[in-house]
Design a protein that fits this description.
alpha+beta; 10 helices; D-amino Acid Aminotransferase, Chain A, domain 1; Dna Ligase, domain 1; 4 domains; ten-stranded antiparallel beta sheet; about 30% helix; about 375 residues; four-stranded parallel beta sheet; about 30% strand; 21 strands; Rossmann fold
Length: about 375
């Protein structure tokens, strides 16, 4: 079987997740990218242009599957899969999920949610009247970059973001106050299956840095979230949806039409005890989602966030630790000697710890012991 994987920069999800999974499934993998120097044995292609993507694949040989885990390439990859008549996502759903203004408009038109949202093009005036507090964000941003809570002075905040992002469209929307959660789904030709969900802990406002995700699949909001995904046309393949449980009920924050990131994709497989990356590729190869097992395990992913600018003086390495009935993994994202400049985004992560065990209490104890004994030192 021949699998084409579209990518931009290398990621752990692809390198340590999807590529080994593809090999386990017996696939011959060709990576298509605009950065071939950063991927082993990759083929140069303008992967942001679906016409170039289709042309390159036709030249290289007919595919059995075309897949991407990149936030930025879902629409283009879906169009290429559709051209070759392969299982894939609806490109319109990919576009609506990626574009935060389109997402709000689709949900409003379907009568699923009514959330105040305004799109600001590069030259558009800033509205004088908004229902403060509001959240300002790039229309197609990632990693919480330039996402901020604005309680007054929206014009100043917009000017600040526009200086960093000239020519980009922004979105202003009402602040959805309440616990932040996720729903993880995987769909085949028969529709999506719920894999589980996480509770999200954020850093201090006005920024929205995700500091921790804890396995917590029990929630009464699943029906609402699944209705929102149906309204967007999202169903096939992996999807990571973030939502807030507000006083008025659950409200979608954003829909990421790919598997959850920041090593929670590995954590998802650890908690469920399944080869989640193989499951995801399997549906793109025409297979079905297996039965999702029940689990009593608890898992957490703790992002180690820099609290100051400076130089990394000491840090734990890439390692796995077995502490009785708890398994812990640490993945450094920075190197000793590297300069850290605070951005107040997910780019401030130094490393990530993920751990799985029989109970929350046991897992938290092992994580805390590891953090105390193996600290990151930034000076």
């Amino acid at each position: 079987m021949r699998l084409y994987l579209t990518a931009l920069k290398p990621t752990d999800s692809v390198t340590d997740g999807f590529l080994p999974a593809a090999r386990a499934l017996g696939c011959e993998v060709t990576i298509l990218t605009d950065r071939p120097e950063r991927h082993p044995s990759a083929v140069l292609c303008d992967v942001r242009d679906p016409r170039a993507l289709i042309d390159t694949i036709e030249h290289l040989g007919r595919p059995d599957a075309i897949f991407s885990n990149s936030d930025h390439l879902q629409t283009e990859t879906a169009l290429a899969a559709a051209y070759f008549g392969l299982p894939g996502k609806d490109w319109r759903a990919c576009a609506a999920a990626k574009n935060k203004f389109l997402m709000r408009r689709r949900l409003m038109q379907a009568g699923v949610e009514q959330v105040f949202s305004v799109r600001l093009g590069p030259g558009d005036p800033v509205p004088a009247q908004v229902p403060y507090p509001v959240v300002l964000k790039p229309r197609e941003g990632v990693a919480s970059e330039d996402v901020m809570l604005v309680e007054s002075g929206l014009e100043r905040a917009v000017a600040e973001v526009r200086r960093r992002r000239p020519g980009e469209a922004l979105v202003v929307e009402e602040y959805l106050e309440g616990p932040l959660r996720t729903l993880e789904t995987l769909g085949d030709a028969d529709g999506p299956r719920v894999l589980g969900g996480f509770g999200t802990t954020l850093g201090a406002l006005p920024h929205f840095v995700e500091e921790r995700l804890d396995w917590d699949p029990s929630d009464d909001s699943q029906a609402h979230v699944l209705a929102a995904l149906r309204a967007l046309g999202v169903g096939f393949g992996a999807c990571h949806t973030e939502y807030a449980v507000t006083a008025g009920g659950p409200r979608i924050v954003e829909v990421n039409y790919r598997v959850i990131g920041d090593h929670c994709d590995f954590l998802l497989g650890d908690v469920l005890g399944v080869p989640v990356f193989e499951w995801i590729l399997g549906v793109h190869l025409g297979g079905s989602v297996p039965a999702v097992p029940e689990t009593s395990r608890f898992g957490t992913a703790v992002s180690l966030v820099a609290d100051r600018a400076g130089v990394v003086r000491d840090a734990p390495g890439h390692e796995s630790v077995a502490a009785g009935d708890v398994r812990l993994w640490h993945r450094p994202l920075r190197a000793v000697g590297e300069v850290v400049a605070l951005t107040r985004t997910n780019r401030d992560y130094l490393g990530v710890i993920r751990a799985v065990g029989p109970s929350r209490e046991r897992v938290e104890a092992v994580v805390e012991e590891y953090r105390v004994s193996r600290p990151w030192v930034v000076e």
